[in-house]
Each structure stands twice: as structure tokens, then as C-alpha cells.
Amino acid sequence: MKLDFQHTQAAHCENGVTTSLLRHHGVNQITEPxxxxxxxxxxxxxxxxxxxxxGPAIAFRTQPGLIFKRTCKALNIPVExxxxxxxxxxxxxxxxxxxxxxxxxxxxxxxxxxxxxxEYRFHFNAHNLIVYGKENDNYLISDPVMEMATSLTSxxxxxxxxxxxAFAPRGQLYYPKEKREVTxxxxxxxxxxxxxxxxxxxxxxxxxITGIRGIRFTANKIRKWRDKLGPQKAGSYLAQLVRMQEExxxxxxxxxxxxxxxxxxSYAYHPLQELIDxxxxxxxxxxxxxxxxxxxAGIYKGRIGSQADFNVMSDYLYAAADIEKQAFQALSxxxxxA
Amino acid sequence: MRLMFQSLDFEHxxxxxxxxxxxxxxxxxxxxLGKITGEICYAVDESxxxxxxxxxxxxxxxxxxxxxxxxxxxxxxxxxxxVKNKEASPLLFFxxxxxxxxxxxxAYTGFWKWHVKKHMKYAAFEKLSASKLAKYAALFEVSVxxxxxxxKNET
Lengths: 338, 155
Description:
By secondary structure, chain A is α+β, with helices and mostly antiparallel strands. Chain A has eleven helices and eight strands. Chain A folds into two domains: 1-12 and 80-177, Cysteine proteinases (Cathepsin B, Chain A, Alpha-Beta Complex), CATH 3.90.70.10; 184-333, no CATH class.
């Protein structure tokens, strides 16, 4: 059984799953940047005291699952999402969906994901892919980060669907419940509310660890890492920061470039010059993040490593925070035509 | 300018700070993922319009991943020493070998976290029942014999 489904590659797995599933359901306007922006995907958070893979817990994007949820909600598309305690039940429902012609988004862990290179297989449980058919014992898989569609045996799929640890997927599957056409008027509204919510997440969440304040918080921490952790561990921490920022799925520059692309694409729906101008600010921010990554690489490769070098690293983050703050403030001042 | 991300020229980094990520500047330093698939990157073209292109990897990322694996190897090595000195049980070694931590081991085996922690001690490990050992062995994908002796060619 193979559903008529078009595999498309994306920078980020959840954006990709959202885009492909919505397109399959007749939302022809949707693209990866639009899904990311409407889902208010841009974020920053540094969770203190939490340790992931023996490094700091930092994210450049919103919590897993939210982009799909928010984008569908903004476009008024009802969503089905299920978790399972039984593996048999999880497979039965999956087969039932496929039999009904419904490609299904699944949350999976990457440690046992056989088609990934070994170097990428850590215990990370918030990866997303689409199952779009089954041939013999092989499930047909559309993994948005891969150029080509691939497949997993039923045992392999069960294993990744029931990976354990933080964000354990528990067999989770999700899909839009109905085919619905979305009007351009709805797209306009969704874009506007996506931007508005993102402004709130980046500027107005109370506390020091999220959004712009989170970036500054991290910048301040980095200054202290060398003395507090010693040069080697501080280097490992920076390496982890770079991995969160640049590894598969970010589109480069910690999602900042994707957001820039989103604002440019929004212009087609809201012809406001501000969107184009603010887009370049996100490009600049992404570039600063990338320069910071180059600086970090100098440190964790041992080429440089004085306190002054950590200070430079920290200054990059302050610079990115400044630009992003201005950009979101500018977005909040846009006068949207009624 | 075009090569800015390939040739890491730290002294002159400040000069590039304001340059824009252009499509032709998307790095192509073959990494582990690059051998299997290109990754989509977003960048601007000559007219300033956003577009996507495939990247084979970026030196900065590859080395960040190497740092992470070097840390893992160090932890495996230190666990091996601890087991040798009977300061820890082989479970610690296999946990590090499989890049797990105690919550993950507990979640897969169904044991309480504090039980797993206890089993990491050499003395407690020696008293483990056959069924518990079998559970751990299954998780770490080794035989019970290999679990006890740590005679396993690491893969």
C-alpha cells in the first residue's frame, strides 16, 4: 500500500511535516517559512540547572509539536493527535490511517533511526517524520531532512516511535483531520497572528531565560564559563550551543534565516515595505549567530581560548539580542491594514 | 569573502561581521550527514531574495559534533577505569557506551531511577538476579556474559 504522497525536503523536521501534510490536504499556499512563521516558531530559551547530553539546555525554536499545532489552528484546520501506551494499538491505528488514505506525522527518537549517520544518533526524541505507506514489512517514510524518501521495517519504526527518555514520543502520531481549502484572506490573518504571537514570545514572556532576555542571559553565562567550568568543559558547552544552533533542521543561523524568508514571503500577502526591511535584520542576526559559531569553533578546537575570546563570543550574542529586539519592536509597530 | 566560512580566519572575523549570508557562501565542507543527504539552508541571492540551497556540511558543525563524541569517549574510558577499580559496575560502562544516562536506562528497563543508580555500584551489581541482568543485557544489546565481563568489541 502506497499513498499518493509527495515527499519534500525541508530544513527543519517539524516545519517539513507540517508543510507536507497541509499540502496533502489541499493547502497549496503553505511553504516551510510560512509554516514556521505562522506557527510562531522562532524562539530562544536557556534552561538553567538542566543538563542535556552533559551540556547546557538551549533551544532556538519553540517547543516540539507546537509549530504543527499553532499553524493548523491559525488556518482553522482540525487536528488529530494520539499517544499510546500499547505498541500494538499504536501500529493498529497507524495501519488504519494508512488504509483510510491518510499520511501520518510521527514523533520519533533518533538513537535507533537506522538511516541516520551514526554520528547524529544521540538520544534525541523530538524528531518528526511522515509515514505514507507500507510494502511487505517496510513502512514508507518521508523524513523531511532527507533528500529522498526512505523506509523502516515495522520493528525499526516501532522502536523509534517508542523511544524513551526526555520528550518520549509514546508512539505519538498526528495529522490534519479534514481536507480544507484555505483562502488568501485566512493566510493573511494567520500570518498576522503568527507574527503577533512571536513578538510576545520573544519580548514579553516574564523571567530572564526566554526570548531576547534569554539570549542576554546566555551571553552573560558564557563570560563565566571559562572560569567556572575550566577551558575544556567550557569548550564542550560552546560546541553544544553551536549544535543546537546549526545542526540539521535550523536552516542555518539558529532559524533566523528561515524567519527572514518568512517575512519576505509574507510580503506577497501583506504588501508592506516594513516586512522586507525587517527581514534583512533577521538575516543580519543570523549572520551574527554564524560568526559566533565560528568564534566558538576556534575555542572548542583549541585554536583560541583566552577570557578575551570568551568575551568576544559573549559580545556576539549581545549583538544578536540587540538586533532581534529592534526587529521585533519594529514588527510590533507595523500598522496592519484592516 | 566568498570563502569566509570555509577558511576560518579568526583575526579578521570582525571585518566580516556585517556581511550577509549569500547563497554562494553556503558552506560545503563534507560532513557525516553530507555523505547521505544534503541539508537545506536558507540564504539570500544577488537580489536579496531568500532562496534555499543544499549544503554538504560545515566545518564548524562537524567539529562541534566531534567535540561531543570526544566527550562521550572520555566518559566511556573513565567508566572502564572505574569498573576496573571496582568503583562502579559494568552497567556504568555500557550506559556510557550507549550514550545513555540514568533516566534513559530507567525508562527503558522499567526499573526505578534509584534502583538503577544502586545497580551501578559494583557490590550491588554482583547480587543482581538473572532476570534483571537479562533486562540490562537486552537494553545494551549484549549477552549477559558480555555484560558481566565487558568483553565486547565496541561497535
